Amino acid sequence: MRRPQSPFTRSALTLAAVLALLAGPAAAQHSDHGDHGAAQAAADAGDALSEGTVRRIDKNAGKITIAHGPLANLGMPAMTMVFAAADPALLERANIGSKVKFRADRVDGAFIVTEIQPAE
């Protein structure tokens, strides 16, 4: 047989139910902020420069070979690959064996270096 609840117990249960209902929307709003943070972090990673070491420069062909770490904006793991230079003047900013920070993008199926600078 069930014991009768005291008025205090009923009040406490009612208060707990009200607080749970009020916390629901606040918790949902908080999780929305987390999603924005994740989206912002992904955007920041896509804008960040990648690091690598120049292995070869072919000024006549307008290409540079870079052994690089992961390319977050392209979803690529670390590897060595050949990139076309968006502007041939970019190739003047690097030397074989030098460490660089760079941005690469995929344009019409080709991987293009759009920015390059010496690594600090």
Task: Characterise the protein shown here.
- With 120 residues, the chain is α+β, with helices and mostly antiparallel strands.
- It has 1 helix and 5 strands, in the order αβββββ.
- Helices cover 34% and strands 33% of the residues.
- A 5-stranded mixed beta barrel has the order 1-2-3-5-4.
- It starts with 6 loop residues before the first helix and ends with a strand.
- The model is unreliable at 25-33 and 35-45 (pLDDT under 50).
SSE order, one letter for each helix or strand: HEEEEE
Number of domains: 2
The largest beta-sheet arranges its strands as 1-2-3-5-4
Shape: globular
**CATH architecture label of the largest domain:** Beta Barrel
Sheet-strand content, in percent, reads: 25-35%
What is the total tally of β strands?
5
Rg of Cα set:
28 Å
CATH class of the largest domain: Mainly Beta
Helix content: 25-40%
- Span between N and C termini? 77 Å
CATH fold-level topology of the largest domain: OB fold (Dihydrolipoamide Acetyltransferase, E2P)
Return the structural class: alpha+beta
Could you provide a short overview of the structure?
This protein has 120 residues and is an alpha+beta fold. The chain is 34% helix and 33% strand.
Provide the fold topology.
Layout: H1 7-47, E1 50-58, E2 63-68, E3 79-85, E4 99-107, E5 110-118
Parallel strand pairs: 3-5
Antiparallel strand pairs: 1-2, 1-4, 2-3, 4-5
Which features does this protein show?
120 residues, alpha+beta, OB fold (Dihydrolipoamide Acetyltransferase, E2P), 2 domains, 1 helix, globular
